[in-house]
User: Which sequence fits this backbone?
C-alpha cells in the first residue's frame, strides 16, 4: 500500500523509474520521494535501528531520505526529481558492515 | 567606482526583497539558493507542470506569494542567480558553495544571510517510525507535490503552522483525523494583547480553527503526547496522548505531522563568527543584530526567519532593510525614511511573534519527561536514557561536550531536530538554566557533501 496519497495534479505524463530493479510508475514533476512513496511505503532501512524510514522534513534539512543510484551516488529523495530511466537503489551500494553492537 | 560584491544567501521572502533592493540601487548581487526554485519554504513554488492557482496553494497569503514570485521573476537577468547551490561554509572572507559536484569560493563586500527556518521538534516516543513527518514537511508535500503524507493524518505539536497546515490538508481533500495541540487554550487568551499587533493575521488564525471544527476535525488543546504507536516494519499506527483534563486517549492514524513552531537556521552566521545571544522568550540562542540587521561581524547582515522567527511578512521587511543597511554601509545613497519605516514594521511583527510564543509555548518540560527508551536523536537512534547515562558517567552538562560523548547532534541532521530538546533535557537533569547548557556549535559543511566534489566547473 502506498504511504502518500495524491490529492490532485494527476493529469501529468507517466514516467517509469526503476527502484531496486523493479519498475515504478511516477508522474512527471514528482520528486523521487513522492514517486517511491506513492507506490510503496518505505524509502530505506535505518542503519542504527530496526525500523524502516520514509523521510521526515521534506526540505533537505534532515537527510533521512537518502537513496542511491546504482553507481553509488547519494541522492536526497525529497529534493531530487524523478526521471524516466533512473535506476535507484534503497540501500547504499558497497556498505555491508553492521553498525549494531 | 568598482561595483561592490554583494552576496545574498536564500531566495525566500527575505532574500528576494534584499535582491530587489540591490538591483534598485544599480547593483547585481549573487543570489545563492539551495532550492530548485525561488520562494523559500512558506512561499515554495510548485513544479512548472503543476496547475493549481495561487488562491488554492497559499490561501489568505496568495497575493503576497504571487507578488513575491513576480518580483523574483522580474529580477532574472539583473542578478547572478544560482539555484540548487548549497552554501556549506563561510571562512577566510569567502562563501563556500557546492552545486551538484562543483564547488566555488566567492569573496564578498557585503553578505546577507537569509537562511530561513526549519521546524522545531520535541521528540515523542516512537517518532522514528515511518509516517512521522515534520509539520513543515507535511506542508511541502501538499504545496509542492499535491500529496498527503498519509491516508489518515494527525497534526500534533503547537504553533500557528499546526492549524494552517491541518486546514490546508482538509481543504485539499486529505483525511485529517485530529489536531492535538500541546498549548492550553488559556495561553492564547493571555497572549491576546501582543497578538493584536497584527489583527489580520490573528483573525486568519481564528478562522482556521473554525474551519477545522466545521469540517468535523477533532481539535484538542493542552494535550500531552505519550507515544507514537507503530512498528519497525509498517510504521505509524496511532497516537497515544493525555487530554488537557488528564484522560488517556488513542487515535488511529498512519501519519503524524509534528512541530512546535520554527527554529532559525543559524549555522552560517555561527561559522561567520557572529555573536549569539540567548532569547528567553523562545529559549533559543540567536545571532545578535542591530535594528537594521547588522550582525556583530562587519559586512554580514541577518534577515528573515534565519535570524529570528518573526514570520514571512516580517522577512520581506527585514530582507529589504538589511540590504538597505548594507548599501548604506558601502557608501551608497539610501532612503533613511524608508529604513525607519521598515524598522517600525519589523517591530510590529516582533510584538506579534512574542504573542505567538506565549500563545503556543514550547513545552520544554516534555524533554525531561521523555522515558529512557524513547529516541531523542532519530538520526543515530540515541535514546533519552543514553544521554542521561552519559551525563551520569561523564558529568557533561554542556551541549557540545554531551554531544561528543553521546552522539546526540552528531548525525545526519547535525542536531537540527534533536538539539533544542537535548539541551532542555540536560538542563532539567542537571537542574541548571537551559542557557547554561549552551548551544551546539555549527560545523562545516553545514550539510553533508559528496566526497566526489571537484574544483569549479
Assistant:
Amino acid at each position: 500500500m502506498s504511504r502518500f496519497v495524491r490529492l490532485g495534479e494527476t493529469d501529468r505524463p507517466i514516467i517509469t523509474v526503476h527502484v531496486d530493479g523493479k519498475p515504478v510508475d511516477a508522474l512527471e514533476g514528482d520528486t523521487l520521494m513522492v514517486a517511491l512513496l506513492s507506490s510503496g511505503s518505505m524509502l530505506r532501512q535505518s542503519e542504527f535501528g530496526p525500523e524502516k524510514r520514509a523521510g521526515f522534513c521534506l526540505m533537505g534539512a534532515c537527510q533521512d531520505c537518502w537513496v542511491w543510484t546504482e553507481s553509488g551516488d547519494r541522492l536526497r529523495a525529497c529534493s531530487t526529481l524523478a526521471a524516466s530511466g533512473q535506476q535507484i537503489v534503497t540501500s547504499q551500494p558497497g556498505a555491508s558492515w553492521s553498525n549494531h553492537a | 567606482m568598482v561595483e561592490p560584491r554583494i552576496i545574498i544567501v536564500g531566495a525566500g521572502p527575505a532574500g528576494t526583497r534584499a535582491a530587489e533592493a540591490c538591483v534598485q540601487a544599480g547593483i547585481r548581487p549573487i543570489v545563492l539558493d539551495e532550492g530548485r526554485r525561488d520562494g523559500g519554504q512558506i512561499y515554495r513554488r510548485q513544479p512548472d507542470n503543476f496547475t493549481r492557482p495561487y488562491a488554492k496553494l497559499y490561501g489568505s497569503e496568495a497575493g503576497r506569494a504571487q507578488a513575491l514570485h513576480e518580483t523574483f521573476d522580474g529580477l532574472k537577468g539583473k542578478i547572478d542567480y544560482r539555484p540548487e547551490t548549497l552554501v556549506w561554509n563561510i571562512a577566510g572572507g569567502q562563501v563556500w558553495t557546492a552545486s551538484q559536484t562543483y564547488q566555488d569560493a566567492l569573496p564578498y563586500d557585503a553578505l546577507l544571510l537569509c537562511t530561513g527556518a526549519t521546524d522545531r521538534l520535541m521528540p515523542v516516543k516512537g517518532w522514528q517510525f515511518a509516517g512521522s513527518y515534520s509539520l513543515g514537511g507535511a506542508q511541502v508535500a501538499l504545496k509542492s507535490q499535491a500529496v498527503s503524507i498519509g491516508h489518515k493524518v494527525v497534526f500534533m505539536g503547537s504553533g500557528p503552522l499546526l492549524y494552517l497546515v491541518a486546514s490546508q490538508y482538509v481543504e485539499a481533500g486529505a483525511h485529517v483525523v485530529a489536531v492535538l495541540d500541546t498549548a492550553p487554550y488559556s495561553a492564547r487568551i493571555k497572549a491576546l494583547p501582543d497578538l493584536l499587533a497584527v489583527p489580520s493575521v490573528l483573525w486568519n488564525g481564528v478562522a482556521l480553527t473554525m474551519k477545522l471544527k466545521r469540517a468535523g476535525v477533532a481539535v484538542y488543546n493542552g494535550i500531552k503526547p505519550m507515544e507514537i504507536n507503530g512498528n519497525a516494519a509498517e510504521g505509524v499506527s496511532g497516537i497515544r496522548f493525555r487530554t488537557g483534563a488528564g484522560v488517556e486517549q488513542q487515535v488511529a492514524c498512519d501519519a503524524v505531522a509534528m512541530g512546535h513552531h520554527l527554529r532559525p537556521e543559524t549555522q552560517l552566521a555561527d561559522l561567520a563568527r557572529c555573536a549569539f545571544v540567548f532569547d528567553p522568550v523562545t529559549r533559543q540562542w540567536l545571532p545578535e543584530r542591530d535594528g537594521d540587521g547588522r550582525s556583530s561581524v562587519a559586512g554580514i547582515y541577518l534577515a528573515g526567519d534565519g535570524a529570528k522567527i518573526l514570520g514571512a511578512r516580517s522577512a520581506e521587511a527585514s530582507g529589504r532593510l538589511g540590504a538597505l543597511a548594507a548599501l548604506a554601509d558601502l557608501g551608497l545613497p539610501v532612503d533613511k525614511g524608508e529604513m525607519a519605516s521598515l524598522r517600525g514594521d519589523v517591530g510590529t511583527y516582533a510584538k506579534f511573534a512574542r504573542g505567538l510564543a506565549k500563545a503556543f509555548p514550547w513545552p520544554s518540560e516534555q524533554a525531561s519527561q521523555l522515558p529512557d527508551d524513547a529516541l531523542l536523536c532519530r538520526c543515530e537512534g540515541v535514546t533519552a536514557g543514553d544521554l542521561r547515562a552519559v551525563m551520569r558517567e561523564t558529568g557533561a552538562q554542556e551541549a557540545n561536550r554531551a554531544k561528543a560523548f553521546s552522539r546526540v547532534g552528531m548525525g545526519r541532521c547535525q542536531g537540527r531536530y534533536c538539539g533544542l530538546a537535548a539541551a532542555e533535557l540536560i538542563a532539567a537533569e542537571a537542574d541548571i538554566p537551559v542557557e547554561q547548557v549552551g548551544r551546539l556549535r555549527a560545523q562545516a559543511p553545514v550539510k553533508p557533501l559528496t566526497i566526489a566534489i571537484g574544483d569549479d566547473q
